[in-house]
């Protein structure tokens, strides 16, 4: 995050000064924004940067215990520098959060500089190798030119020039949220690879007396656990490609001072980061549990995969907060649509009349047709966004201000943002396959994955579709069965579909997910290498167990 911030927020002179040092690893930096007391509420950050025109320096300070920077990755022991986000004060006025490059440690002996107290925040649930750290600033002075001034400036006499958009400071977070969508795709692909390969190796239970124990991958329940998640990994692969394309396009526009799509990008990246990381987080646990006891062993790779992935739901914007950000924009789009404005591509459906006639009993509609089903996802999203938006309007009519009305409707707003994200993902998956140049055999297999993703997505949220009369109960039941009917077809190619991710064993880090399937021998080898097995009799015997046993034996 340190380098992308410099690349996006530096003037050309600052780029020339700082970036070569980063690229050559002559300095190592972190992104120090979160504080003990604030991570989500950026405008509440307390670190200050007061400009001193006499020396043309900024004085950075952590005025309170809650202002200590807390969590930034590699801050504790590794980083020599940080981008520090602080409240900028000049000529007696506060101008809000701005980024500053601060050197933390000497480049000679790596010791913290004067005015810098820095260290590791202590053991965490995961990310063990990462020294997430704390930083307390004691009136630490930095040159004026260390404020990143691409968008806003402080002149030598202290005059402040404001940015074209205050939220341009938030640009790195948007970029990393887009990366996290990719991270979700990768994590779910890894978990699917481990679980499906192991499920092809593991045989368990005797269905009928005398028959060989079946592969657990042959059980419909095991397939129902794993194949929708496999399909989701493929869906997230295509959606992260689409998200990155939109990010790149909008970022190019921003670089040409066209800020027209910055809100749409913020809303989409926020919703997709939250949606994909939540789904992946839950999916990792399903994959682990589908591997039985061995899934709980460190040898499976799941404990580390989960512990390192799960903070994706928190960092870079806590998921609920980001869903609310996305929903806030959707509500605004409903208003714009009602006033006749044209809406941007990813939200244009909110101005369409997607109201459908209740299908009643037997609808005669082709419930296996993906294009038709995507139109139902669209209808669900539109209904939920309009419902939440109407809640906000009713709150305002009842005398609330906008903030109060948004807060009062926030549960529905989160549901609306989730439905919007889900529609975008399902639509992108189906459309991406249409554009894919692939053999008919491959198209057929990928169509099976897209179908099970779309069917299961409706089955797992059938309440949304039935409550709004988008589907009848019997239609929802039919779609649920369509998903189950696909499972044995996907079974045929399941192992090939995870092999296609091409994770090397060294990357997968899983005995259960080994490419050669040689699990049991390697589990035993792995166990023998466990530190506890260095000696047959563990040293603790002589200190504790031995005396205890001998003392009690003497009583026999
Ligand atoms: C290839 C595989 C890679 C896998 C791994 C990938 C990544 C892993 C790497 C890193 C992870 C490790 C480190 C993690 C780092 C961090 O966590 S860094 C810190 C992250 N912190 C946050 O994200 C803070 C979240 N909070 C916020 O963003 C803001 O406080 C919040 C948006 C919630 C509220 O802003 P605020 O100004 O207080 O209130 P408003 O809601 O009124 O917003 C004002 C307007 O600003 C618009 N806006 C907000 N954010 C943005 C944005 N980013 N871009 C554009 N616009 C934004 C918002 O929509 C409002 O606009 P309107 O007034 O409605 O027009
Ligand atoms: C592994 C890891 C690495 C990190 N790396 C970095 C880093 O490199 N740099 C950095 O600056 N930070 C980093 N962070 C910090 C991270 O960005 C914050 O933890 C994150 O932004 C969440 O903020 P918070 O901790 O204040 O949570 P809070 O916002 O306090 O969340 C707590 C609860 O409050 C709820 N909540 C908060 N606001 C609202 C609201 N407006 N409406 C409804 N509910 C709300 C949330 O939904 C959540 O349930 C890292 C964190 C972790 C776990």
Describe this structure in words.
There is one protein chain. The protein has 556 residues and is of the alpha+beta class. The chain has helices at residues 2-9, 12-23, 171-201, 220-255, 262-289, 292-295, 302-309, 319-338, 370-397, 402-408, 410-435, 440-460, 462-467, 473-491, 494-499, 505-508, 519-528, 539-553, and strands spanning 29-32, 48-52, 57-61, 69-70, 81-90, 93-103, 116-120, 133-137, 140-143, 153-154, 160-161. It folds into two domains: 2-153, Butyryl-CoA Dehydrogenase, subunit A, domain 2, CATH 2.40.110; 176-205 and 215-334 and 378-392 and 417-499, Butyryl-CoA Dehydrogenase, subunit A, domain 3 (Up-down Bundle), CATH 1.20.140. The strands form three sheets. Strands 1, 2, 3, 5, 6 and 9 form a six-stranded mixed beta sheet that branches. Helix 5 (262-289) crosses helix 11 (410-435) and helix 9 (370-397) runs parallel beside helix 12. The termini are far apart. The protein binds ligand LZY4JE5M and flavin-adenine dinucleotide (FAD). The site of ligand LZY4JE5M has 29 residues, from helix 3, helix 5 and helix 8.
């Amino acid at each position: 995050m340190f380098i992308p911030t410099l690349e996006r927020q530096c003037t050309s002179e600052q780029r020339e000064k700082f970036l070569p040092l980063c690229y050559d690893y002559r300095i190592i930096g972190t992104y120090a924004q979160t504080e003990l007391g604030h991570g989500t509420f950026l405008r509440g950050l307390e670190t200050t940067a007061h400009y001193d025109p006499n020396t043309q320096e900024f004085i950075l300070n952590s005025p309170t215990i809650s202002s200590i920077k807390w969590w930034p990755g590699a801050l504790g022991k590794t980083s020599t520098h940080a981008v520090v986000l602080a409240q900028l004060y000049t000529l007696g006025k506060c101008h809000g959060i701005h980024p500053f490059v601060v050197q933390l440690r000497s480049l000679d002996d790596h010791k913290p500089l004067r005015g810098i107290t820095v260290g590791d925040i202590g053991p965490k649930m995961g990310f063990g190798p990462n020294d997430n750290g704390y930083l307390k600033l004691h009136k630490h002075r930095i040159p004026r030119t260390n404020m990143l001034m691409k968008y806003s400036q402080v002149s030598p006499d202290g005059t402040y020039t404001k940015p074209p958009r205050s939220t341009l400071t938030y640009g790195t977070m948007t970029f990393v949220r887009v990366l996290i969508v990719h991270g979700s795709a990768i994590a779910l692909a890894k978990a699917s690879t481990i679980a499906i390969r192991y499920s092809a190796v593991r045989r368990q239970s005797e269905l009928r007396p005398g028959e060989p124990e079946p592969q657990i991958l042959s059980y419909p329940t095991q397939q129902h656990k794993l194949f929708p998640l496999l399909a989701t990994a493929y869906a997230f692969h295509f959606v992260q490609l689409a998200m990155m394309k939109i990010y790149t396009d909008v970022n190019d526009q921003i670089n040409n001072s066209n800020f027209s799509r910055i809100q749409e990008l913020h809303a989409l990246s926020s919703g997709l980061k939250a949606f994909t990381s939540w789904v992946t987080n839950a999916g990792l646990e399903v994959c682990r549990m589908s591997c039985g006891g061995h899934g709980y062993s460190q040898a499976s790779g799941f404990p580390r995969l989960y512990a390192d992935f799960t903070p994706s739901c928190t960092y870079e914007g806590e998921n609920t907060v980001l869903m609310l950000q996305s929903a806030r924009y959707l509500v605004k789009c409903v208003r714009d649509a009602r006033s006749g404005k044209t809406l941007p591509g990813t939200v244009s459906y909110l101005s369409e009349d997607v109201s459908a006639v209740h299908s009643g009993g037997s609808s005669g509609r082709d419930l296996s047709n993906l294009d038709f089903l995507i139109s139902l996802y669209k209808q669900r999203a539109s209904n939920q966004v309009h419902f939440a938006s109407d809640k906000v309007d009713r709150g305002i009519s009842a005398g609330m201000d906008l903030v109060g009305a948004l807060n009062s409707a926030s549960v529905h707003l989160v549901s609306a943002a989730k439905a919007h994200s889900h529609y975008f993902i399902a639509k992108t998956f189906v459309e991406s396959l249409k554009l894919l140049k692939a053999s008919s055999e491959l198209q057929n297999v990928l169509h099976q994955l897209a179908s099970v993703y779309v069917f299961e997505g409706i089955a797992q949220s059938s309440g949304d579709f039935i409550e709004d009369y988008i589907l009848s109960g019997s239609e929802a039941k039919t779609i649920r069965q369509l998903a189950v009917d696909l499972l044995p077809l996907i079974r045929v190619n399941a192992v090939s579909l995870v092999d296609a991710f091409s994770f090397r064993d060294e990357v997968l880090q899983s005995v259960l997910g080994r490419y050669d399937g040689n699990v049991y021998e390697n589990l035993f080898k792995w166990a023998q290498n466990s530190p506890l097995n260095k000696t047959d009799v563990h040293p603790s015997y002589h200190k504790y167990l031995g005396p205890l046993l001998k003392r009690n034996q003497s009583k026999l």
